[in-house]
Amino acid sequence: MEQLIPINIVVSDRSYRIKIRPEEEEEVRRIMKEVNEKIVDFKTSYAGKDQQDYIAMALIMYATHPGTSGGKAQAVTAPFLQEKLEKLEEIINQALG
Questions:
Q1: Rounded CA separation 53/42 (Å)
Q2: Residue 58: inside a domain
Q3: Strand, helix or coil for residue 3
Q4: Which GO terms describe its biological process (predicted)?
Q5: Which of 3, 7, 38, 64 gets the highest tally of CB atoms within 10 A of its CB?
């Protein structure tokens, strides 16, 4: 069984406890720092929104820009997803070829 460690992460001043693999901790903390910085950026750029709007905007931006470090982090923290995508691509190529 894979060893998971509990860590606390903060998203927009709220703390959440998650379990991750030890080798992922540094990357997860770096990503959460970037997300929180983007939330602050949106707060200063778009006055009049509520906190949930800023969080959603930051996470959507982060998830939809694969050229950013978000795309790199996803490949590191979700290798199982990469494997599934490669298998799906192989199945599609076999069906077309």
A1: 9
A2: yes
A3: coil
A4: cell division
A5: 38
Which residues constitute the domain of residue 51? 5-65
Please report whether residue 87 resides in a domain: no
What is d(CA 97, CA 30) in angstroms, rounded to the nearest whole number? 42
Q: Which candidate, 78, 67, 60, 72, places its Cα nearest to that of 31?
A: 72
pLDDT in tens, 51-80: 888 888 888 887 777 555 544 544 444 566
User: What is the residue whose two structure tokens read 């199945």?
Assistant: 91
Q: Is residue 77 part of a domain?
A: no
C-alpha pair distances (Å), 8 with each of 14, 70, 78, 90: 10, 20, 19, 38
Instruction: Tell me, yes or no, whether 85 lies in a domain.
Output: no
> How many distinct structural domains can be found in the chain?
1
Q: How far is CA 9 from the centre of its chain?
A: 12
pTM confidence score: 0.62
Average per-residue pLDDT for the chain:
79
- Residue in the structure block whose two tokens are 């949106």: 42
